[in-house]
Amino acid sequence: MLKDITLGQYYQTDSVIHRLDPRVKLAATMLYICSLVAVDQAGGYVAAVLFLAAVIRLSHVPFRFMVRGMRSILFLLVLTFVMNLFMIKGEVIFAFWKLTISREGVDMAVKMAVRLSLLIIGSSVMTLTTTPNNLMDGMEKALKPLQKVRVPVHEIAMMMSISLRFIPMLLEKTDRIMKAQMARGASFDEGNILKKAKSMVPLLVPLFVSSFQIADDLSMAMENRCYRGGEGRTKMKPLHYEKRDYIAYLVLAAYFVLCITVGRIVRWGRIF
Amino acid sequence: MALILDHVTYEYGSGTELLVRAVNDVSLVIPDGQFIGLIGHTGSGKSTLVQHLNALLKPTSGNIYYNGEDIHDKDFSKKKLRSKVGLVFQYPEHQLFETDVFADVCFGPKNLGLDRKEVELRAFEALKQVGLPDEYFYQSPFDLSGGQKRRAAIAGVLAMKPEVLILDEPTAGLDPKGRDEILGLVASIRKERGITVILVSHSMDDVAEYVDRIIVMNRGSICYDDEPRQVFAHKEELESMGLSVPQVTDVMYALKRSGWAVDTGAITIEEAKRAILDCL
Q1: Measured between alpha carbons, how far is B124 from B141 in angstroms, rounded to an integer?
Q2: How far, CA to CA in Å, does A255 sit from each of A35, A46, A104?
Q3: Short-list A193, A228, A185, A244, CA closest to A20
Q4: Cα Rg of chain B, angstroms
Q5: What would the pLDDT profile of B134-145 be if each residue is shown by its tens digit?
Q6: B residues 66-85 lying closer than 8 A (beta carbon) to A
Q7: Three-class SS of residue B69?
Q8: How far apart are CA B280 and CA A232, in angstroms?
Q9: B105 has a pLDDT exceeding 90
Q10: For residues B168 and B89, is the Cβ–Cβ distance under 8 A?
C-alpha cells in the first residue's frame, strides 16, 4: 500500500561519488544542467553522455535505479518530442495530411529529448548518492552568504530536513489510520467526487491531530536540548573539502570547458 | 463458523532487494468462541497476521476462509467481513475523528448501512459496555484521558457487533491500572457476547490469566500453539525469542531453584498462592 512509495531515493553503497562533499555534487549538477542547455552540437552531447556514464560507473549505483526516475517524466518527454517534431517550421522532409515534419523539427525534437533524459538521469545521480540530510547540509553551507541579506538559511534548511524526515512517518500513520477506518467499514474509493471527499474526513482529522502532536513534541524536545536557531551553532559533522573534492572540481571544470568547446564552438554540422 | 488460514505467507516489498517475509507459511484454525492470545516480540509478524483476518492485507500466497468462504473471492463482501471480524488497532485512540464520542462510535455501524435508530442503539450499548461514564458521551473525544479515549475507540469497533474481536496490543502505553481495566473489560465483553477474541500482545502477563489458547510467533512463523500451561513449560525457548513467562511463573521457577518443591506450572497469582501453600 502506501508504504511502497519511496521518497528520497538514496542508494546505500560506498563509492567515490557517495563520499564527495554535497556542495561538489550540487555544483556539479548545476553545471551539468547548464552544459546540457548551452550545447547545441552533437559533439557536446557525446561528451555529456560519456561524462555521465563515467560518473554512474564510479557511483556503483545500478543503472536501472537511474532510469526509474525517467518513468515519471515519460509523458512529458514524449509530449515535447512530438510537439517539437510537428510544430517547428522549416525544410519539409515528410508531409501527411496537415502534419508536416521539418528537418529543423527533427533536429530540435531529438535535442530536447536527449537534454531532458540526461537532465533527469544527471540529477538522480545526485539524489541517489547523497542522503537528504547531507544535501540539506550542503545547501545550507553553500547558501550561507545569503544570510548577510537576512535570508534565514539555517532555518529553511532545518525545516526542509525535518519535513523530509517526517514524510515516511506520516505515510505510515496515514496507512495505519486508513486501515483502522477501513476496519470500521469505511471505504475511500467508492462513489462520486463529493462522496470521496467526504470519506477523507475520518482520515484527515486524525492525521492532522497527530501531525500537530508530533510537531509539538519535536519542538519541545528541541527546546529541551537548547536549540535556538542557527546562530553560533556548530555541526556534529562539519563539511570540509578534502583532496578528492578539489580533484572533482577540476574534473568538472575540464568537462565544462570540453563540452562547450565541442558542443558550441566547433561546428560539426547538423545532427541530421 | 470459523476462521481458517491455509498456508498464508505475506511479503513486504516483493520483487525488490528489500524483501521481508513478515508472515511465513502460517496455517491456523480459529474456532468460534475461543479466547486466543497471540504473542510475539516486536517485528514477529503478529500485527501483519491479524490484518489478514479482516482482509486489510491480501496474502502473497495462501488462502483465508471465513465460514467456509474464501475472503478474497470476487463476490465476497469485504465490508461485511469487516463487520464480522472487528479489528482494534494498536493505539486505537488515534483513529477518533468526530466532534463527540457518540458520533465517533456511530461511524462503524453507520458504514454498515443500518438505519439511524439501530446505529444509535448499538453505539449506546457499546459505550455502556466499555464502561465509559455517561457524561463523556457528548464531549469531544480529544478531551478525554488516554484510557477513556481507548475505551471509546474500542466501543467504535464493538458497535459493529463483530463475531470475532481482535485487539492489537490494547494495553500499550497504559499504566498498570489502565492495563488491568482494559484486560478486564475485554474478558467481560467476551463473557457477555460469547464472541471469539484474539488478544495480540508481547506480554505473557497480559494474556496468561484470561486466554484458552496461546499462539507464539517468531520471525513470521508459529512456534507454539497450545494451552497456556503447555506453552509456558518452554521457558527457555521463549526467553531465547525475547519473550518471557508470566512473572509469577518466573517466581515459581526461582523458588524451585532455591530448593522449594513447588509446582512451576502456576500461571496466575491465585494458582501460585495455592502451589506455595501446598508446598508449605
Answers
A1: 15
A2: 9, 12, 28
A3: A244
A4: 20
A5: 999 999 998 998
A6: 79, 82-83
A7: strand
A8: 70
A9: yes
A10: yes
Q: Express each pLDDT in A21-78 by its tens digit.
A: 999 999 999 999 999 988 878 888 888 999 999 999 898 888 887 777 777 788 888 9
For residue range A228-264, list pLDDT tens digits in order: 887 778 888 888 888 999 999 999 999 999 888 887 7
Number of alpha carbons in the 13 Å side-chain half-sphere of residue A34: 12
Phi, psi for residue B98 in degrees, rounded to 5: -75, 175
pLDDT for residue A268 is more than 80: no
Residues ≥6 apart with Cβ < 8 Å to A155: A229, A230
> Using the 8-state DSSP alphabet, how is residue B75 labeled?
T
B94 touches chain A (CB under 8 A): yes
What sign does the dihedral A242-A246-A249-A250 (CA atoms) show? negative
Chain A contact present for B157, CB below 8 A: yes
Q: The cell 538522480 sits on which residue? A: A124
Could you tell me the pLDDT band of residue B17, with boundaries at 50, 70 and 90? low
Tell me whether residues A179 and B79 touch, CB distance under 8 A.
Answer: no
Chain A residues touching B142 at Cβ < 8 A: 209
Element (H, E) at A156: helix A153-183
Which ipTM was obtained for this model? 0.87
Of A229, A215, A226, A225, the C-alpha closest to A166 is A215
Give the A:B interface size as CB pairs under 8 Å: 60
What is residue B33's three-state secondary structure? Answer: coil
Q: Is the pTM of this model over 0.95?
A: no
